[in-house]
Write a structure and sequence with these properties.
The chain has 119 residues and is mostly helical. The protein has helices spanning 6-23, 37-41, 47-65, 70-87, 92-100, 102-118; strands at residues 26-27, 34-35. Helix 3 (47-65) packs parallel to helix 6 (102-118).
Length: 119
Amino acid sequence: MKGLTPEELALLKRLDRLARLLDERFVIPGTGWRMGLDGVIGLIPGIGDVVTGGMALYILLQARRLRLPRHLQARMLANIGIDALVGSVPVLGDVFDIAFKANRRNLDLLRRHLARRAR
């Protein structure tokens, strides 16, 4: 992405790997649907959503470092909150985690902002 510093590019690459790990790392056999650790760890009652929520907050904290506007930070926080709230519901929440992909959404928000800023 043009206009970004090497440090910003490296950070974006790391965040992309984390978002992929959390939301899209594995394919559910026979379906073609992708899921990540958010869906797998979320199966552990109570602790799973706390762990993956913390990882999602890391992406938000890094977006703050990149000076993402507050309204976009609020959208990212809303995505994390929705994912955590609905994800805490047994079974339904696990299906929701596979479909919603909050981390990918948040990374897309950050990437679009950085592309606009670079122009």
